[in-house]
Amino acid sequence: MISVLFAVLTALSNGSASVLQRRAAMEVPDSKALHLSLIGHLMRQKVWLGGIALVIVAALCQAVALATGPISVVQPIFVIELPATLLVAGWLMRVRAPRTVWYGVAAVTAGLALGLASAAPVDGTDVVRGADWVPALLLTGAFEAVLVVAALRARGNTRAALLGLAAACGYALTAALMKDAVAHLGPGGGAVALLTSWQLYATAVAGVGALFLLQNALHAGSLVAVQPMLTLGDALISILYGVTLFEEELRTGWWLLPELAGLGLIGAGCVVLARSSLATDTLAPRPTRPRVR
User: Coil, strand, or helix at residue 249?
Assistant: First the structure.
C-alpha cells in the first residue's frame, strides 16, 4: 500500500508539473527547439521553475514507491497522470471539466485496476546483475536514437508524440536504475554503498536526458499529443524492464484477456480525454502571431 500511495502522489505531481512546463514551453521561440539554450530560456520563467519543483517532489515519491514495491506495479499507476494533467489544467485555467472527461477518467482508472488485478505482478530481485545492464542499455540507446532521428524529420504533433515516447523510454530507464540504486541501501549496504554505485549517477543522467526530451516534446506540439505517449509508454516499457531485469512475474495464459481488456480501457480513456474540449481549450498550442515588419 505504501508503494501504491507514493506512486499515486508521483503521478499527481508529474501531471501538475507537465501543465506548468507546457505553459512555459508555449512562450519559447521555435528557433530554440532541440538546443540546450531551450533550457536556459525556460529557467527564466517562474512557471517552469514551479514545474521543476514538482518534478523533484515526484522523484522523491517515486524513489519511495520503487523501494517498497515492484516496478511492474509502481510505473503502470502513472497512467493516471494524463487525467490528472487535464483536470489540473482545467482548474488552473478555470475551465469546467465536461462529462466526457469524467468518462475518460473512469475508463483509465477502471482499466488500470483491471490490468493490475489481472497481471498480479510478483516482486523479483531488488538488484540487477551488472552484466544484464549491458544489453538493456544498448537496446534502450538504439531505440531512443531511432525515435529522435524520426522526430527530427517530423513536425508539429508528430514530432511531439515521438519525442514524448522517447522521454517515456528515458523515464522508464530512470525508474529501473533508481530501483537498482535504492537497493544498495539495504542490509550490508547503506549510504556509502548508494553513493558509490554507478546506478545512482546513471539515474541522474537518464533523468536529465528524459527531461530534456520532454521539454522539446512539449515545445514541439500540444500536451494532448505528448501525454498519452508519455504515460502509456512509460508504463509498458517499465513493465518490460521489470520482467527482464528484475525477474518480476506477471500472470499469463487466459489472464492475458482481462489484461488486454484493461489496456484497451486505458487506451479508450486516453482517446476520450485527448478529444475532450478541456484538452483542446486548455492545452492546445497558442496561435502564432504574425510578425510585424
Answer: strand
